[in-house]
Write a structure and sequence with these properties.
24% helix, eight-stranded mixed sheet, alpha+beta, Aminopeptidase, single chain, 8 strands
């Protein structure tokens, strides 16, 4: 499933493929301590860190991850991302028969508290259940990440189970919660 040529529009956001010209905006939000760590990755210490990540966003990676840039329409700035990743459900016998992807997201701290992440996630959900025809989407958060929990709840995901997550970049294991959202039957 590829979303690299997909553009999604919401009231306040455009979700689109990453561009080389997005480097400075990516570094601006990804270099803020605490932003990436809430999702399991180390904040970017240099523009070169951001350049390497941007290249994987543009080219994709070996896991088939696809990541869209979140562009805030009001100021035409990239302020975060929403990605589709390999799901925890693929390793769980109760869910392995389903076609799933995991939604992950990050938003610039300067834009927190405005409802932008649920707006973006809802657009990706709608696309995934119509376009690629997935059976379900999953999402998860570290137990200490209450903002992500609220996004997940607002978007209609159902709690499935606790999980342990090893964040390779942080070399740390976190307790988390796993959720699922099934494709609605028509």
């Amino acid at each position: 499933m590829s979303i690299t040529n997909v553009t999604l529009e919401t009231e306040r956001l455009t979700l689109r493929a990453w561009r080389e010209t997005d480097l400075a905006a990516l570094f601006e939000y990804a270099s803020v301590p605490g932003v990436g760590e809430m999702a399991g990755w180390r904040h970017h210490a240099s523009m070169e860190d951001s350049r390497q990540i941007l290249q994987t966003f543009i080219a994709g990676n070996e896991d088939g991850d696809e990541v869209l840039a979140l562009v805030h329409k009001e100021d035409n700035r990239v302020i975060g991302s929403v990605g589709l990743h390999r799901s925890w459900a693929a390793e769980d016998n109760d869910y392995a028969h389903l076609s799933t992807r995991e939604i992950g997201y990050v938003l610039s701290r300067a834009y927190w508290g405005r409802g932008l992440t649920p707006e973006a996630v809802r657009a990706v959900i709608a696309f995934c259940f119509v376009g690629p025809g997935l059976d379900a989407l999953t999402c998860s958060h570290f137990v200490t990440n209450h903002q992500s929990r609220r996004v997940i709840e607002k978007c209609g995901f159902s709690l499935v189970k606790p999980l342990r997550y090893y964040a390779r970049q942080l070399d740390q294991t976190f307790d988390g919660m796993a959720y699922i959202l099934y494709k609605p039957s028509l």
